[in-house]
Each structure stands twice: as C-alpha cells, then as structure tokens.
Amino acid sequence: MVENVIWPAFLDAELTRAEGRRVNLEQAVPEPTVDEIAQAVQQVGYDAVIERDKQYSREFEPRGRVVVKDADDATKSDLLGAVAAYLDVIRS
User: Fold this and answer.
1) 61: helix, coil or strand?
2) Which pick of 37, 44, 60, 86 has the fewest CB atoms within 10 Å?
C-alpha cells in the first residue's frame, strides 16, 4: 500500500520551485487549501486523508497536508498533475 503526501506548497503558484512548488506554473493555483486538494484527489479517484496539524519543512505556517491512499498505479508527478488540473476546474 503506497501513501503519497501532497503538501499545498507543491501546487502553490505563489511559490518558486526552490520554495517547494512541484508542478509547472501554468498548472499551479494561488494558495491551495487542503480541502480543495482532498476534493481534487477524490475526483481523480483516490482516497484522501487530511492532516491539518502538519507543517511543510520549507514553510513557517502549518497549512496541513493530504495523504493519498492506494495510489499504486500512478507516479507522484502524474498524481500532482491530475490534482492540479482538477484544482483549476474546482476554482472555475
């Protein structure tokens, strides 16, 4: 059972790659929340668990994280790309 962790910083358009963004700037959205990310993960077809009390090591404020369960068939970059696409649809 593989668990992938998605931090909001991975998808944040206001951050640089050095600050933690993992997707292209065109795919990123400004200040994504763990609720939006969890909703996008569920739209992609995986189970999501929100852990609100966690803090990404490159940030000073805890924004939480989303743990994706049973994503054995997708790479981390594919998963992040799909979640970013759904985040854009959710915000439209």
Assistant:
1) coil
2) 60
Give, in order, the Cα–Cα distances in Å from 90 to each of 29, 84, 86: 11, 10, 6
CA–CA distance, 37 with 72 (Å, rounded to integer): 19
Q: Which residues contact 50 (CB under 8 A, 6 or more apart)?
A: 34, 35, 38, 64, 65, 66
| Identity of the residue numbered 14 | E
At 70 the pLDDT is 85
* Continuous segment of H or E residues that includes residue 5: strand 3-6
Residue type, 58: R
The CA R_g of the chain, rounded to the nearest whole Å, is 12
Q: In which residue are the tokens 């700037």 written?
A: 25
Q: Residue 38 carries which side chain, given as an amino acid letter?
A: A
Place of tokens 């206001």: 14
Q: To the nearest whole number, what is the mean pLDDT of the chain?
A: 93
* Residue 23 half-sphere exposure toward CB, CA atoms < 13 A: 28
